[in-house]
Amino acid sequence: MDATTWAVIGTGITILISIGAAFRSLRTEMRLFREHLDKRIDGEGERIDGLRDRIDAQGKETAEQLGQLRERMAKLEGLLEGLREAITGKRAA
């Protein structure tokens, strides 16, 4: 084997080592990025749960207010019917 063959073999080994190191570095970087994303997603999950709780509380409060409004409207309807009867002297159908 002459010097050219050894140079080609050496160059091939050097390229293979470089590719292996690049893949190893890339895998490490991807693992760290995945861990970072997992932490962020967990944090967002807590924020989303908090938002759901707030929406549920708002829904319950709105339902209570709607019930109170229905009662007040029924009372007003009764007063208006009484006023109509007093003015016209006839009962509403």
Per DSSP E runs of 2 or more residues, the count of β-strands stands at 0
Strand content: under 5%
Principal-axes geometry comes out as rod-shaped
Along the chain, the helix and strand elements come as H
Structural class: mainly alpha
Kindly report how far apart the N and C termini lie. 115 Å
Largest sheet: none
Helix percentage range: over 70%
Low-pLDDT residue intervals, each spanning 5 or more residues: none
Account of the 3D structure:
This protein has 93 residues and is mostly helical. Helix content is 92%, strand content 0%. It has one helix at residues 3-88. The N and C termini lie far apart (115 Å). The mean pLDDT is 89.
Write the layout of secondary structure elements.
Blueprint: H1 3-88
Which characteristics define this entry?
93 residues; mainly alpha
In short:
The chain has one helix at residues 3-88.
